[in-house]
Amino acid sequence: xxxxxxxxxxxxxxxxxxxxxxxxxxxxxxxxxxxxxxxxxxxxxxxxxxxxxxxxxxxxxxxxxxxxxxxxxxxxxxxxxxxxxxxxxxxxxxxxxxxxxxxxxxxxxxxxxxxxxxxxxxx
Length: 123
Hints:
- By secondary structure, the chain is an all-alpha fold.
- The protein contains 6 helices and no strands.
- It has helices spanning 5-13, 19-29, 35-42, 46-67, 69-97, 101-120.
- Helix 2 crosses helix 4 and helix 5 runs antiparallel to helix 6.
- The radius of gyration is 21 Å and the shape is elongated.
- 14% of the residues are buried.
């Protein structure tokens, strides 16, 4: 069974893998090729492909354990989503009770910035 978190790890840490590790792992996880298909394309054994992918996975999980960038990005994205929801709540509340153009403008600016930051996250 494929561990789909490997795709996210690849986005952050692909540079630490060898070219073969990277390509085999991308083919397997992102391009949905089977081990047999990769092996045939590369003229090596299925076991050779599996071993290369397993080594890549180990490197990716080890570096994430050390650096935690994927976890930090996911946590940041959750916070940005919460900021966006709260900004929308302010806009709705303002429309209902106050109607201040200044409050509306600030809340919309926060919403826009949150959306821009959120769009920059792939995860």
